[in-house]
Design brief:
alpha/beta, seven-stranded mixed β-sheet, globular
Amino acid sequence: MPQVEKVNPYTHDTRAKDEQVRSMFDAIAPAYDFMNRAMTGGLDRLWLRSLVSTVAAVKPRHIVDIATGTGDVALALARRLPEATVTGIDLSEGMLDKAREKAAARPEGSRLTFVCGDGTRTGLPDASADVVTVAYGVRNFADIAGGYREMFRILRPGGTLCVLELSTPVSALPLAFYKLYTRTLIPALGRLMSHDDRAYSYLPESIAAAPQRADMVSLMLEAGFKSASFRCFTFGVCTLYTATKD
């Protein structure tokens, strides 16, 4: 079991991790988009563009976006791919409420469906998606290996998996700055803006404990994927993983 699966949002809470994750995201949903922009200095938009470009290259007709959150990835994919439909799945109704509000205000919103559900047990039919995407959600899974097996199941043969996930830098100087920033400034800003004392302390803890780079690729391969690889952005603080199903 990857170490991150033992890292919970609320350290003294006896509920299962998926229940804690749902509660956390319900609590921070109103501040989530602002915090993403503030924490990354807007770099999350550049990382998102890389994911969208990777997906667009395979010209999918149906995309499943797991851990869709407030819908930024799903909406960006729908804008870039006018022939595609997108199903967004998330544990948190609070986050999905925000996603549905955004979709209702945009013309591409008619091609989006948002469903409350567990990314490790989607309930979708076998081989029903051309592409599966996950942005910043894999480390929140209670069972990462099970999540990848579920993604493999719902992808059609020849389908593509794209996972965008936060990671820790490898080089010494960026790593030192990263630790200072994530362990002090982010939790302080999170407490101020989201009024959740643990949510933005859990963030750097879960990133540090999550499988990264070659270890994440290994989990994809173990689930049955082929041609798995990764590409790092911004000194390694974000990584894009891609894999295919034969």
